[in-house]
Specification:
Elements lengths: L4 E4 L6 E4 L9 H14 L1 E4 L6 H8 L22 E4 L2 E2 L2 E2 L20 E10 L12 E5 H6 L3 H7 L3 E5 H10 L7 H6 L2 E5 L1 E3 L6 E3 L6 E4 L4 H15 L5 E4 L6 E5 L3 E5 L10 E8 L2
Parallel strand pairs: 2-3
Antiparallel strand pairs: 1-2, 3-15, 4-17, 5-6, 7-15, 7-17, 8-14, 8-16, 9-10, 9-13, 11-12
This protein binds succinic acid (SIN).
Length: 285
């Protein structure tokens, strides 16, 4: 019998899974419990998982086919399924993406078939002198954000489509003073159009799919109206009542639903404190 415990965070989203050993293949009953909890709570975290890259890949692949990304510079040398996020430099070059998550976003929104699930593993975390781990990741539930919209707004959004663009993010990154070379990604998949309100493919919840990072234009309305609406919706999505902040520990694995959540990293640690994260992503159904 499974001894798994699912402990909700008590915020708008997320639960801790206690009693799972992800270094081992999970039996079907245990995985079914984790799968159900994931689509209920939209984010799960597991503490103390000293996973190999193969363990990380095996566990996340239970949720669906893993994406092999085309952004070649930030990929793990042996595993194209693993995207490396890090401030660590070797020979003067960052070993991974050093500014991932600088804006509120959902992973892969600029792809025609965006990511469904992301699983981020903490290999090294930046620890302040007093023991506080820096570099929290903030999450919001955009299904809850949608549910609380006034009826008139829900009606207005019905049927609207928006452009999700990696160039939009690149422009903001450059404006923020960080130079970023997105050439590979831009050439391969620069943008995609998706509904402003997505119906979740697994649980049918309606989710707001408009982010600060990637949404460049809402189609079918004047440009100034589009800009104002994006601003209004993104401000609504990131209200504290829809949020959960994850304070990392080394060997945490956090997985989130890319349709029903958005996330943003915190850059409150200096380069002298190394942070190394590995992320896998599941291709949408
Ligand atoms: C991400 O946006 O996927 C990375 C978040 C983080 O590094 O905290």
């Amino acid at each position: 019998m499974s001894t798994l415990q699912i402990k909700p965070t008590g915020t708008a989203l997320g639960a801790q899974v206690i009693g799972a050993d992800l270094t081992q293949p999970l039996d079907d009953a245990t995985f079914a419990q984790i799968h159900a909890a994931f689509y209920q709570y939209e984010l799960l975290y597991f503490r103390g998982q000293e996973l190999s890259d193969e363990d990380h890949i095996r566990f996340s692949a239970r949720f669906g086919e893993l994406r092999k990304l085309k952004i070649t510079k930030q990929l793990h040398v042996n595993h194209p399924e693993i995207f490396v996020i890090s401030n660590i430099k070797q020979n003067g070059q960052h070993i991974g993406s050093y500014d991932a998550g600088i804006f509120w976003h959902t992973d892969g929104a600029y792809l025609a078939n965006p990511h469904a699930v992301s699983a981020l593993r903490a290999l090294q975390v930046p620890v302040r002198e007093d023991g506080r781990v820096l570099g929290d990741t903030h999450f919001v539930s955009v299904s809850k954000a949608y549910d609380t919209l006034p009826q008139a707004m829900k009606k207005r959004l019905d049927g609207l489509m928006a452009v999700q663009s990696i160039m939009h993010r690149l422009k903001q990154t450059q404006e923020s003073g960080l130079k970023k070379d997105y050439n590979d990604a831009v050439k391969a998949d620069p943008e995609a159009t998706h509904p402003v309100v997505r119906v979740h493919p697994v649980n049918g919840r309606k989710c707001l799919y408009v982010t600060e990072g990637y949404t460049s234009r809402i189609l079918g309305i004047p440009e100034d109206e589009s800009r104002d609406l994006i601003r209004e919706l993104t401000a609504h999505c990131i209200k504290p009542e829809f949020g959960y902040s994850h304070n990392w520990r080394q060997h945490d694995l956090v997985m989130w639903d890319d349709c029903s959540t958005q996330h943003k990293a915190t850059f409150d640690y200096p380069e002298s404190l190394p942070r190394l994260m590995h992320r896998t992503t599941v291709v949408a159904a």
